[in-house]
User: What shape does this take?
Amino acid sequence: MPDVRVYPTPEALAMAAAERFVALAGAAIAEHGRFCAALSGGETPRATYACLAQPELAARVEWPRVYLFWSDERGVPPDHPESNYGLARAAWLEHVPIPAANVCRVCGEHGAIQAAAEYEARLRTFFAGEPRPRLDLVLLGLGEDGHTASLFPGSLALQERDHWVAAVSAPKPPPERVTLTLPAINAAAHILFLVSGAGKADILRQVLQGSRQPEALPAERVAPTAGD
Assistant: This one.
């Protein structure tokens, strides 16, 4: 069963998520020398990233041992307002001493198909010899339609079994997206959904209760194979 934690305000949620990030980073580095996390976009993650940029939290992280990836990205340049990488960079990464080589962004400006191929190649090089990318943490959001990352209801990407990354066409702008697939997401050691707002209460309830509509609610198909 998922470990569901409820916080009184979005700010409290953001700080709790940031503290969780720091704790998992410390544990992973102590266990195997590095911490690999896939980030998400959206306002709730933005607030979490801002917390991680605060000096008191940032000082607790061994940044040279942290490696960052993205759960999904839009088909836009990194300086575009819709860029998930750009969001994290402005709110967080510009304010901490993480080596540039440790940040593996998706090159959305190359177009979804090419960007997906490039991103998968980089992941397979980084996680060479592993059947799946063993990320220590994947941060995800939840859309009011039940999508997560850029896995939307009815998407063919939900059927992917071999590739770690897929190019998808989203039903909302910008349409070109690149996303981690379910096999890649579910291989993570830890998956953390960040969900806030009254508008998402109903869809969250459906996902938690199990609607048995996996094609209609992609978030319901997130189920770590060897993690939590």
